[in-house]
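Dataset card, provenance and construction

Sequences and ligand SMILES were collected as paired inputs. For each pair, a complete structure of the chain with the small molecule in place was predicted and serialized as structure tokens. The example below shows a pair involving manganese (II) ion. Curators did not alter the output after generation; any descriptive sentences attached to a record were derived from the structure itself.
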Amino acid sequence: MKYHQIDRDLFIKNRAKFMGQMKPKSAAIFNSNDIYPISADSTMPFAQHRDIFYLSGVDQEESILLLFPDAPYEHQREILFLKETNDHIAVWEGEKLTKERALAVSGIKTVYWLQEFEKILFELMTHSDTIYINTNEHYRATVETETREARFVKWWKEKYPAHAVAKSNPILQRIRSVKESEELDLIQQACNITEKGFRRILSFVKPNVMEYEIEAEFIHEFIRNRSKGFAYTPIIGSGNNANVLHYIENNQQCKAGDLILLDVGAEYANYSSDMTRTIPVSGKFSDRQKAVYNAVLNVKNEATKMLVPGTIWKQYHIEVGKIMTSELLGLGLIDKADVQNENPDWPAYKKYFMHGTSHHMGLDTHDYGILTEPMQANMVFTVEPGIYIPAEGFGIRLEDDVVIQETGAPFNLMRNIPIEVDEIESLMHS
Ligand SMILES: [Mn+2]
């Protein structure tokens, strides 16, 4: 791990919150992700399942967490099962968590090696009536592989058909969406690393640079600041590439006079940051580019003010749509007739701004959070309006990550990342 060890009090609190929501005589089980194969003996880099990480801090494959608040003995209330390690195994497999390290990382005192799992599980099952299983109910999820978690659930259901089943996911969606101060610090660190990357590329970009050269500058800056890398596949889209919303080829040359849309964020300690900036290849915006840019910036600033406790995500999007409509009228991109005749299910502004304005952000870039429930203090949202104009050869999106406050405007975790036209231009010329 490149990141500094996280204070285990975070994971102790997270488990207490989860256990506080469980039914009597129930246990909950969470699994690591698999290491995914590529072919031959090569694999994808390991990425931990965010739920077991959130509840334990264990950032290692083949780990199982079992929570059983009503267990007959105290030492059975929180149990970790880990892949066995010792000095000999460590020579071959590298450093893995020992039982002592696992306690230091997670605060969990009872740690067994994985080979003891089935025997211990059997005993605990006799004392429990309900088992919480962890299924993925994220609103954007499309999963084609069988995860380690799903494989476990299948095995467990077959083996213990008489137990009642409950869902971990709604509990996790609620507790993970409201961040602890330790988490806000980690997300801030991810944002600070993203800022360093962005400042680095501001002095690097010039006409004829390749999009992938910009990508390389970012990753260089991220890794040297203890990030594992990009929190999500970066979008470096110059000219009309910015109008392809999921453009990730990043293989074109940036031409003088064009804009480049950069949707790039560093991860830190498995926490995401999610930033978008749009900058001029030549270091100066044209008047038209500047007018559209400031329209997007105004929508972003106005939308941010609406992220307060009690706001409902769907209603918020309707209000943002009204602000965007007025900006598009001002830019002459739509006219009054377009608005009068608009289809309420697909308003006129959607021609130029066809995606959502905000999503929860945290351990996942598109983080957990139940969108039908009111916003609360310490939720982290992105704010990311855009205007995409293929006919004019550019698209502009601006995105910051903000924390909802008990009272007043949200706190902007990206407040130090340049966004005003003048500041961007002057940094590109220095
Ligand atoms: Mn985003």
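Derived descriptions for this record:
Residues 274, 359, 382, 384, 399 surround manganese (II) ion (CB under 6 Å).
The chain has two domains: 9-175, 181-429.
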